[in-house]
Amino acid sequence: MQAYTSSAIVNSSISPGVDLDEVYATERVRVLVVDDDSDLVVLIKHILRSSGFDVLSANNGVEALRRAREVQPDLVLLDLMMPEMDGWVTLQNLRQFSNAPVIVLSALSSKDEIVRCLYEGVDDYMTKPFYKGEVVARINAVLRRAKQPRETTRFTFPKVGLVIDIKTQEVIFSNHSIQLTAKEFALLALLAKNAPGVVSYPVIAQTVWGEDVPNVRQRTKYLIFLLRRKFEEIDPNFALIQSMDRMGYKLKTE
């Protein structure tokens, strides 16, 4: 067996490693701060750490998405004007795999920008400069609202690249927007709400068509055919909607 001297394994210039099991086991709220102003990031991190939050940061959208995937923050503070990838694009990409609440912190203060943010699904909007106590108060308020039970209006299935927004009836598959008719969307939304479970023929009949009569099943099969064709135009090798023999249909979410 090879012998190791203390000098071979100890180097005073190297800081001790971090036990990541302990880091990720913490119950403290993790906040991701995304801003290209390094001085501001340092200030915000100090404010949040002093208030009991765990904090990490990113200086641009590309880095923010990477860190969000790694750490899965409980909340994101997001600037809009950044190099490489601005806040709008960052938000759109973030929503492909995360439902973490987002508070925009921006120098832009026009009503149009605020309204656009709210339409894009931002949970709150703050303008720079800000009062330090306000940041903590707004984060706590957003987190309280996020914990309250509410009907889900946006379904995200990151493993298959599918996003369905009930309010806007927007459907994105593999980064492509898909236009659906009202009936097509109603059926797809029903499958999404019950995923990965199976939705039976009678439930589909009552929910989509409002009646369960003999010819409804044939109408449903044709609607499924139309839906599948639209998704197959984007990815012909992936069957998103699966038929369950004599039972109904379900979404493939893995």
Automatic annotation (TrEMBL):
SUPFAM superfamilies registered for this protein in UniProt: C-terminal effector domain of the bipartite response regulators, CheY-like
A Pfam family reported for this protein in Swiss-Prot or TrEMBL: Trans_reg_C
Gene Ontology MF annotations: phosphorelay response regulator activity; transcription cis-regulatory region binding
Signal peptide: none
SMART domains, sorted: REC, Trans_reg_C
Domain spans labelled Response regulatory: 30-143
InterPro entries: CheY-like_superfamily, OmpR/PhoB-type_DNA-bd, Sig_transdc_resp-reg_C-effctor, Sig_transdc_resp-reg_receiver, WalR-like, WH-like_DNA-bd_sf
Listed GO biological process terms: regulation of DNA-templated transcription
Protein name stated in the entry: Response regulators consisting of a CheY-like receiver domain and a winged-helix DNA-binding domain
